Amino acid sequence: MRSAIVVGAGTSGAIVARRLVDAGVVVTLIEAGGYDTNPAIHDPSRAGELWHSAEDWDFFTVPQEHSAGRRLHLPRGKVTGGSHALNAMIWVRGAASDYDGWERDGATGWGWSEVEPVFDAIENDLLPVTDDYPLSPVQASIIDAAVQEGLLRNANYNGGTLDGVSQEQVTMRDGRRVNTWMAYAQPVADRLTIVTGREVHSVIVEEGRARGVRFEDGDELRADEVILSAGALGSPVILLRSGIGPADELTALGIAVVQDSPQVGKNLHDHLLSPVIFTTQRPVGPPQPGVSATQTHLFWRSRAGLTEPDTQPLHFSVPMWGELEPRGDDGFTLMAGLVTPHSRGSLTLSGPGVADLPLIDLAALADDRDLAALAASVRQCRRIGARPALAEEWGASEVYPGPEVADSDVEEWVRRTAITYHHQVGTCRMGTDPGAVVDPQLRVRGIEGLRVIDASVMPTVPTGNTNAPAAMIAERGARFLLEE
Questions:
Q1: Which of 243, 210, 186, 253 is nearest to 9 (CA)?
Q2: Contacts for 189 with CB less than 8 Å, ≥ 6 apart
Q3: Which H or E element spans position 375?
Q4: Taken in order 118, 120, 121, 125, is the CA torsion positive or negative?
Q5: Is omega for the bond preceding 462 within 30 degrees of 0, making it cis?
Q6: Which of this chain's residues are annotated to bind substrate (predicted)?
Q7: Which residues fall in the annotated binding site for FAD?
């Protein structure tokens, strides 16, 4: 009987495991973290508690030259459910042109006509995707203020047009988080072999074929197929430790080269956010159980001539102070967002062991076009917060960047405050060119029996949150494997 190892029980891995076991494959699902027993995972109002927790890999970048030399925190889920156990559950398909662009650039078979039916199937099958929930009063006013600013109210941003302000579509049911682990893998746990709390060091490759995985303690587990679904940071790390990557980098670390694949860990990119924070005279109140701190967002084009929006601010019902000094007890945040980054970074190993943390360089804001777009989004958020629906009805007053920062100086604010939008992609890029890490069927080039199925294979990041595209990739990747 055919057997497979799936590494990572996050958005992609949980789906792959379910589809394979349903087809009669003997599946071992490996998760470096533990089970999702932390109550904060299940209550959307408590998501902020999960950063720096036991369920967070708690990655940091190297100092970012173009972002005031800061090391940016990159929360990633180390738990069943993966980052879908930590995130805001926002469901965005992206733009049709995103996927047509993938296909045009060599990801054959990944155009919109091929992926749209997969999104349809996911949303009508196991995973609840809904915007049928009451808006918090301040969130309703944020929508009104955005309309006063001149944006259209978009009732369904997943309906073909992103532009406008919308209520977020999320994966929730009855005020509780629902992720792909809960919807896909957990219901068939008795048909899976699930290994938790063990980190995979590398893939065992013998005579050009993947034969299993090796754990951090040297133990081995073997199967006919190996699928890496450890995410845009985890999957390339495992490939590199396996000797699959840039030969010169591997040799320098004393790692035997199994397959010279120069692009493993390259093409790293991410969406970015920058906060605009307001205090209010009318109380917003603390987060309520079962209610996410973010319920609305908008898509907007920062300049003329763009074919799709390049910004996506998120709106939070709390002041997101982060590392800023609090300037009040109550308020809200319009988190300016960049979703079409031009900057490209890389991920490399610092050593051959699991204790050697990866060197993650987003090259955040290295491209001036990214800085210009995110700064324009900040300026827009400032204008929205000053509209009557917020300034008059709530007594909203901007405290960050604050009146001391002129619009002409916003770029410096962005460099000092930009943070991740949690959407790293691209480090195991798929394509048909010789440099692609995986082919369009997600097979690792040069190694039989090994696939990467997660956000790392995206050639370019879609316009919007990456959870839905990662789920779509998982459904298609599992199908490719079963059809082979």
A1: 186
A2: none
A3: helix 368-385
A4: positive
A5: no
A6: 421
A7: 11-12, 79, 200
Longest pairwise C-alpha distance within the chain: 70
pLDDT tens for each residue of 80-135: 999 999 999 999 999 999 999 999 999 999 999 999 999 999 999 999 999 999 99
315 is catalytic: no
Write down how long the chain is.
484
Q: Which positions make up the binding site for substrate? A: 421
Number of Cβ within 10 Å of residue 65's Cβ equals: 13
What is the bridge-based pairing of β-strands 272-279 and 397-400? antiparallel
Mean pLDDT of 71-86: 98
Label residue 262 exposed, middle or buried (CB < 10 Å: 0-12, 13-18, 19+). Answer: middle
The candidate with the shortest Cα–Cα distance to 128, out of 64, 82, 177, 86, is: 177
Alpha-helical segments (H) within 196-274: 231-241, 247-252
CA-CA distance, 32 to 35, in Å (whole number)?
10
Amino acid 1: pLDDT: 87
Q: Which structure tokens are listed for 476? A: 């298609």
Residue 444 has pLDDT above 90, yes or no: yes
Q: How far is CA 451 from CA 240, 286, 378, in A?
A: 14, 44, 40
| SS3 (DSSP) at 267 | coil
CA separation for the pair 200, 215 (Å, rounded):
4
Query: Which position among 84, 297, 422, 423 bears the catalytic label?
Result: 423
Binding residues: 11-12, 79, 200, 421
> 115 φ, ψ to 5°?
-90, -25
User: Distance between CA 417 and CA 324 in Å, rounded?
Assistant: 9
The C-alpha atoms of residue 14 and residue 27 are separated, in whole angstroms, by 11
Torsion on CA atoms 80, 232, 312, 119, rounded to nearest 10: -70
Give per-residue pLDDT as tens, 320-360.
999 999 999 899 999 999 999 999 999 999 999 999 999 99
